[in-house]
Structures are given as C-alpha cells and as structure tokens.
Amino acid sequence: MATTATSDVGPGAGAPFSSIITTVRRSLTSLANKGKQHARKPEDGHAQITRLIATQPKPNSPPHPPDSQASSAGKDSHEKPPLHLLALPTELLNNILRHLNFVSILELRKTCRFFHTLASPPQLRILFGREQLTTLLLQHCKTCLVHDPFRSNLLSCSHEDEGWPLASQCVDCALVANDERLKIGKRVKLGTEDVVQICRWCGRPIRNHEGVAGPPDPNSPGTRRDGRPFHKGNCYRSYNNSLLFFFILGWVQLTLGITGAGLSWRYWRGAVMVFAPSVTSFLLLWIVMGFLFFRGSRKRAYRYTLLLELAILGCWIPPVYYISMQIVNHPERDVDAAMQAALALFGLNLVFRLFNVMGNIVILCSTPDLTPRKKPNAGLFKRAIYKLMLWSVAWTYPPSVEHRLSSE
Length: 408
What we know:
The protein has helices spanning about 1-10, 10-40, 45-55, 70-75, 90-100, 100-110, 115-120, 120-130, 130-140, 170-175, 235-265, 270-295, 300-330, 335-365, 380-395, and strands at about 155, 170, 185-190, 195. The chain is an all-alpha fold.
C-alpha cells in the first residue's frame, strides 16, 4: 500500500501540478500587461472635453448601434472632431458673414481661397441683399474703412460722388485730405443728415450730443449768441483760459508802459533820447488799446496794430541804448536805483512789444485759422510750430479766433 501511494506522487504524478502553476503565472502576467495597456496619463481639460465630445452619440442616431455597425461606430467615436472654422456648415458661415463689418470681411477673404470665394462681391450681394449691402458700405469710410454704424463721425455723401455707396469719409481722413468742407465758418452735413458748424478751436464738427458753448443764436441754432461756435468741453475752456491770460497780460503791459513813461518824465527829462521816445510810446499805447476795444468781430485791423506795435518797439530802442551807453562809458560812476529801474522797465517794454509784433504777424498770416495743429497726421515739428503760433495769438489778441471770415 505504501509503495502504491508513493508511486502516485512521484515524478509522473507531478506533471499536472506544474502545469497548473504555469497556467496561473501566465494568467497573472496577462492581467498585468492588460493593466499597463489600460493605464493612461492624466488628461488636461482640453483633451477631456475633446474626448467627451467625440464619444457623444449623434442626436438622430440610435443609442446602441447594431452589431454589424459596432466596429465602424466604435472607430468613429475615437476620432477627434475638427476644431477649425472650415468645419462649420456653409449656412453657419453665411450667418457669421452677416454680422461682420466690411473691414472684417476683407480681412477674412485674405485668409484662404475658400473664404475668398465665399465672401466674393457677387456672393455678398446675394447674401446681404442690395439695400443692406448699400447701408453697410455707407457706414464705412472710403479711405481708412473704419466702421461707424451711426455715421455720426462720417461726412455725408450723395449718389453723384465717386465710388458711391462707398463714398463716405470720416472726419480724421477729411482733415488729413484738407477737405474744404471742414473749414471754420462753414457748415457741414454729417452722415446723420445733421448740418453742424465747425469748432473754431479744434476745427472739428460740433455734433449735437457734444453741445456748444454759450447761449444759442436765434439766427444760427446751436451756436453762441454772436454766431461763433466752440465745443462745450475742452475747446471752450481752453479759449476762456487764453482770454484770461490775455487780460492779465494786457494790464501788465499797460502798467509797464505807464511806469516807463513816468520814470523818463521824472529822471530823464533832460535826455532827449529817453524822454521823447518814451512819451511817444505812451501815446501810441493808448491808440493800440483803442483798437483792441473798438474794432469788434468784423473789423480786422491787424495791419494797423502791427504798424503801431513796430512804432512802439522802435521808440523803446533809443532809451535802452542811451542808458546802456551811460553805464558802459562811465564805469567809475555808481549805478543808482533809478537808472537800474529805468533800464529794467525799458527793456521789458522792448521785449513785450517784440512779442506783440510777432503775434500780429501770425494773426495777419493765419487769418486766424490755427486748427491744422489738431490734424491727425501733424508731425512733431508741425505741432510745435502751431503751438508756438497759438501762444503768439494768445499773447497778442486771442479774440481774433472769433472774427468772422470772408466765407461767412
């Protein structure tokens, strides 16, 4: 019995047990390999959303496809959907085109041949229709193609204009092109069919929502009482500041002229080169003041004030020269306070009158349009020159901005 039991567990009987162990090992190895195959790296948000979109069933398709289509459906579900604009249906692309302005459509046509054909002029006429396309073109500037849906910053155009309906022009492009419609003293018709005036400080149209400075003129609605408009904000404020500067400066010049004449009367009555010119400049000063107060808004007497300012400038040269020579030729003599005060006052009068001469020349030449300084294409040098001219006008006579022009 012992021998029989021993023979059952011998080498011949151990073969089935080893095959079982081998089978178990192969099963564990296969499971481990499958676990490695199914292990994935963490996905970012974009990959997760793309995978979810790809695995969503179509609305019209059955939730469980037949067995014959299972393989093809499973294959399609793992493909990533296209994420570019060309994947959209043509109906959606046409709907997008209807919401674009003219500049965006032109830029879209430059991207590829498909959109160049889809947004071609014949297709746009069919897509928008004649009336809508005309309205869209009228809302664009013909030069810079800027889109203004309300046309409040566009000048009006008519059927006779070249290129109509793409014949409107924005205010900036009209200023750059020196459009004659944007001249001070004139009225211009905007794209909103409003007829407005040009601001005398910046040279731009005064639109209705911007308001005007001062009470209205009964003969010219929306302007000041004397008919000269300004923008209600910065333009009119800047103009008032220049008037205040001119008022203070005028009193300073008058004080210097009277004081200089008084000093020459008190201390230099015996010196003809000092006394006679200072008294003459004192008399001419009052004539200039009369021109400032009584010439009004239509009388442009700049040529006469220029001659008077040149005469006053020439009158102050001999006193300054005489006193300077007295100091240079007699260095041993002490310079008293009267001589110092007279030299300082005569020199200030000379400098002030020189600035007045320059300002009158600027006013006489610019007549009195200084709005080109506000042009969009004005360079740094040109802006500096016009800024200097503006300060010269503010120094000499800023109300010249309000003077009526011959075009009015």
